[in-house]
Amino acid sequence: MTQRLVGRPAPDFAMETVSGDGKTFGKASLSDYKGKWLVLFFYPLDFTFVCPTEITALSDAAPQFSELDTEILGVSVDSIHSHRAWINTPVADNGLGQLQFPLAADLTKTVARDYGVLIEEEGVALRGLFIIDPEGELKYQVVNHNDVGRSVEETLRVLQALQSGGLCPMNWKPGDKHLVAQ
What we know:
The protein is an alpha+beta fold. The protein is built from five helices and nine strands. The chain has one domain: 3-Layer(aba) Sandwich (Glutaredoxin). 23% of the residues lie in helices and 24% in strands. One of its GO terms (cellular component) is cytosol.
């Protein structure tokens, strides 16, 4: 039975990573992001077709997320070596080029399973995106079929709404009024 994640502590994780420039390997855990907002997103596989459109769009928007005290971490079931090769492959050849955030390797598929996005029979993740607040509470999740990319603009909008501290109606944008509870 599936359990809800939103409103609960985000599932802990520890994964190996490759830096966005493809030069260094490291590690990332949920505790590394304590005190900051985190956009944690899963994608199915390296060297696929929809994934680079999302990953590079998030990388292009990284300065906007940074202004909102938010880090980004991408995750797939591929190895850090595959991630590095994809980062170092030219965009013209279906590569990513330089990124503004690391990519993590979930080889054991534990993290994808813990976040409820693993397609067990295929061994890959759905397109899951999670916003985790500075205290580690999972505040937002969206999961798409792998044929459909996500929206960076909507992710930014939701993040800003969550950070606004008020009741935000549909299509709320920064500068809009909050709802007043009666």
